[in-house]
Amino acid sequence: MSDKESFAEKRDEYAKTSGVSHVDNAASYDQRRKMSHAEIQSAVRKGSVPHIQGGEQEAIAIARQGGWEVDALITEMENECEANPKKGMFDIEFANPKLFTWLLVAFASMGGMLSGLDQSLISGANLFLPVDLGLSAQQNSLVNSGMPLGAVGGALLLSPCNEYLGRKNSILVSCLLYTIGGALEAGSINYGMIITARVILGLGVGLEGGTVPVYVAETVERRLRGNMVSLYQFNIALGEVMGYAVAAIFLKVPGNWRYILGSSLLFSTIMGIGMLFMPESPRFLMHKGRPVDAFRVWKRIRGVESADSREEFFVMKVSTEAEEATVAAGRTSKYPWMDFFRVKRARRALVYANIMIFLGQFTGESSSTAALASTWHT
Q1: What is the dihedral of CA 6, 10, 15, 17, to 10 degrees?
Q2: pTM of the model
Q3: What pLDDT sits at residue 258?
Q4: Which of 77, 125, 225, 377 supports an S-S bond with 295, CB 3.0-4.6 Å?
């Protein structure tokens, strides 16, 4: 009997006795692992997962072939969760984890609406604000430019906030900035106060604009990822339309521009409270060396009953480990920024992002490059 037939028999026997239906279909893969039927059963039962040398590409191949490592990893994570149960005060759960997808998108994408809303509210306020505060034409121009200027600072905060605070907490920080900026705008009594409020508001816009799309991309299932990130873009345009509608509603109300600018407080408060109950991105937790916490979140928002969900978690874990190894190797490089051109994935994202910036300016439309480029994430 050939080695190929021997391994095929082991595979079929394992499928019958273990109850696991998605077993590797490639005998050469079993042969490469050189594990007996008993060893495979023991590995799945104990959660003993070998190190995957090939990184994300090999993990995807294993998952597509229904490799036993997927089941071993899930079993290992389940055992860790049972041994160390942990639940936070805001950790809500649903019988159907798919409900979380819609909650995540509803609250996170509200950031897009806030961004669009605050961009257009100033247009209505400009009808009355300069006269009430006695602003010159130059001062009023700076007030209008304050938010885009602050957004530059918010973009600079993206990396440190997302790296050290996480996606969820970065969104909460942006909600806080939105709220502080909106409150200061509504209560402004002089030029210094209104310009400060606009810059703070811009910080929130810049931070939220680069964080929300990544958060959505890292939490929703892959078949919906592109649509959900695009929904964020739609909400920016929706927020801009709402801003004009709000201005029209308060047009004839005494102190109208204060109500117009302060209306964003309602949405930032709702979003901030809602985000308290949302989980951290499982990929961020994995990136921080907390695979068990990542699995707890994954079970809440995605479940592990379907083969697709189990396999995606497996690929995420292996690819994150490979990324960490690549980053560690890059620290010894004199020119790590050259990875933008050397690494195919980074080069593709860079080209795509710059094309979208060009098209956004060329057509006269605003575009959130972070939202569009994040569809390449994972």
Answers
A1: 140
A2: 0.77
A3: 92
A4: 77
